[in-house]
């Protein structure tokens, strides 16, 4: 076991380490024949990559990079990783009692939660809510295979293998609902999301697992992410099979990139000697809370700084400490301030540990075309296959979306000089506006366009331990 007492051979690899990937397919399925599924599942388990397996892969990739003189050249070192997760409806179909997972968001499912709590658009109310989602996500989803790798052929081969295990056509124990392929963006844009900002910078460091964490937010106990460990607020109420598992929130998020760019251009900030492009870049940085390079505006508010961006001990080492009731450096509603308010809550002694999530998304869709740039309009679907792990959805993903991003009065300052407004990137609600976008007058309010990030599907899952797969799920 790791120093933390975590059994890395038992925990799925995407949770703690993140499956190494240049491409990743999310394969959503229904279980059509539970008895056969349980038998087939026994043959599937050897394909699953544990956290330990990922560490081995990373060593191999690092060695390969050293030999190549940098860069992970696809095809030269095929790497693939498979993980699996189940929804509440999947456990029901298998006759597995999952009540001790406790989480109401999980037990409700995301389709209904989307209307009740996440703010997604749709029709109907309560259990009859039908979100404006793609068809496959309006059906009951039982599980998802995540297949990550360095190239399409490697991933496609794994998918074929999985389909063979569960059987094809009428003889299959599963029904494929949809498989969505994600790809990191090309060249220097890799690791940047489609609006252009570097992503995947700030994930929580886990005590005992991340042995040498860079400077930044306080490291968290493993139980905030992995069930059954210290930091899991329901640790004492779990069934034994739940230990070493984690909840997975998946969201299929489409991004309207030309529309977002056009908005920045139309509303570009102005200052002495500033070009329109610089004004647009500054506005974008204020909406996200970071420059495209990843440098945080709390530290470098008026100019991007590539040196800060390149330094692991500086890129995430900011806390909003100098501005707990003040938004000249960074708007209260900026995406990274909304989703991890750091000193805004911590200065009052409120711990953020239970609200931390580990993000594992990947981009999907093509680069913006010339035609789209000219028309300032999206013609091709693209965005983020958003995914995050946590030991509680109601304190993690759901809480961040509902109580922070969609909540105009968060952070709730006693002395709040201005109403923060919505998270401009992911905030959903009737009044899409925020204050603080103009550093010269933080009380000015900016009306935002309709959503630039449009949810078109999603579900809540549980990623079981490998022991639970063997003892509980496989027959
Ligand atoms: C951070 C973009 C959706 C939660 C970030 C960052 C970017 C970004 C550029 C900064 C890089 C980093 O710190 O790693 C986006 C885009 C989204 C999206 C374009 C949609 C297409 C979401 C959603 C959530 C979320 C749905 C959760 C409800 C977070 C969190 C952080 C973050 C927790 C880290 C904050 C911190 O630790 O400072 N996002 N994001 N994001 N995002 Fe998002």
Structural key phrases:
5-stranded antiparallel beta sheet, binds protoporphyrin IX containing FE, 2 domains, 475 residues, 15 helices
Task: Give a concise summary.
This protein has 475 residues and is an alpha+beta fold. The protein folds into 2 domains: 13-252 and 458-473, no CATH class; 258-352 and 403-454, no CATH class. The protein has helices spanning 13-16, 34-44, 51-68, 88-94, 104-108, 110-118, 152-166, 257-266, 276-288, 306-310, 335-339, 343-346, 370-375, 397-405, 466-473; strands spanning 23-31, 80-86, 122-123, 130-131, 143-149, 174-183, 246-255, 358-359, 362-364, 383-390, 433-435, 445-447, 453-463.
Structural description of this entry:
By secondary structure, the chain is of the alpha+beta class. The chain has 2 domains: 13-252 and 458-473, no CATH class; 258-352 and 403-454, no CATH class. The chain is 27% helix and 16% strand. It has helices at residues 13-16, 34-44, 51-68, 88-94, 104-108, 110-118, 152-166, 257-266, 276-288, 306-310, 335-339, 343-346, 370-375, 397-405, 466-473; strands at residues 23-31, 80-86, 122-123, 130-131, 143-149, 174-183, 246-255, 358-359, 362-364, 383-390, 433-435, 445-447, 453-463. The strands form 4 sheets. Strands 7, 8, 9, 10 and 13 form a 5-stranded antiparallel sheet that branches. It has a 4-stranded antiparallel sheet with strand order 2-5-1-6. A hairpin with a 6-residue loop joins strand 3 (122-123) and strand 4 (130-131). Helix 8 packs across helix 9 (276-288). The longest helix has 18 residues, at 51-68. The radius of gyration is 22 Å and the shape is globular. The mean pLDDT is 95. The structure holds protoporphyrin IX containing FE. Protoporphyrin IX containing FE (HEM) binds at residues 193, 195, 197, 199-202, 251, 253, 255, 288, 290, 335-336, 339-340, 357, 383-384, 386, 397, 400-401, 405, 425-426, 453.
């Amino acid at each position: 076991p790791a120093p933390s007492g975590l059994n890395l051979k038992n925990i799925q690899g995407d949770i703690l380490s993140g499956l190494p990937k240049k491409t990743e397919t999310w394969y959503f399925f229904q279980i059509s024949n539970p008895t056969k599924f349980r038998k087939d599942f026994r043959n599937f388990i050897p394909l699953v990559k544990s956290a330990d397996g990922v560490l081995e892969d990373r060593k191999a990739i690092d060695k390969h990079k050293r030999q190549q003189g940098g860069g992970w050249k696809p095809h030269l070192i095929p790497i693939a990783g498979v993980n699996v997760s189940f929804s509440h409806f999947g456990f029901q179909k298998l006759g597995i009692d999952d009540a001790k997972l406790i989480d109401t968001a999980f037990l409700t499912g995301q389709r209904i939660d989307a209307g009740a709590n996440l703010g997604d658009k749709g029709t109907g109310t309560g259990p009859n809510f039908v979100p404006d989602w793609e068809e496959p996500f309006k059906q009951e989803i039982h599980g998802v295979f995540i297949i990550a790798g360095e190239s399409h052929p490697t991933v496609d081969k794994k998918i074929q293998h999985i389909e063979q295990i569960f059987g094809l056509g009428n003889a299959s124990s599963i029904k494929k609902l949809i498989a969505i392929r994600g790809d990191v963006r090309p060249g220097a844009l890799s690791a940047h999301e489609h609006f252009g900002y570097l992503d995947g910078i700030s994930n929580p460091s886990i005590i005992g697992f991340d042995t040498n964490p860079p400077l930044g937010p306080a490291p968290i106990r493993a139980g905030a992410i992995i069930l059954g460990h210290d930091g899991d607020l329901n640790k004492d109420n779990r069934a034994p099979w739940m230990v070493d598992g984690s909840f997975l929130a998946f969201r299929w998020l489409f991004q309207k990139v030309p529309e977002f760019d056009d908005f920045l251009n139309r509303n570009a900030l102005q200052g002495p000697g500033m070009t329109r492009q610089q004004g647009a870049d500054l506005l974008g940085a204020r909406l996200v809370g970071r420059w495209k390079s990843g440098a945080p505006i709390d530290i470098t508010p008026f100019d991007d700084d590539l040196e800060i961006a390149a330094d692991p001990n500086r890129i995430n080492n900011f806390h909003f400490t100098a501005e707990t009731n003040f938004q000249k450096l960074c708007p209260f509603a900026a995406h990274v301030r909304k989703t991890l308010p750091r000193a805004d809550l911590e200065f009052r002694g409120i711990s953020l540990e239970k609200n931390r999530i580990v993000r594992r998304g990947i981009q999907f869709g093509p680069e913006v075309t010339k035609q789209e740039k000219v028309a300032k309009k999206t013609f091709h679907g693209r965005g983020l296959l958003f995914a995050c792990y946590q030991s509680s959805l109601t304190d993690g993903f759901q809480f961040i979306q509902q109580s922070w991003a969609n909540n105009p009065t968060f952070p709730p300052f006693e002395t709040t000089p201005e109403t923060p407004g919505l998270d401009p990137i992911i905030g959903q609600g009737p009044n899409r506006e925020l204050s603080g976008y103009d550093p010269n007058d933080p009380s000015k309010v900016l009306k935002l366009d309709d959503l630039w990030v449009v949810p078109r599907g999603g579900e809540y899952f549980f990623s079981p331990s490998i022991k639970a797969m063997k003892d509980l799920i496989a027959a």
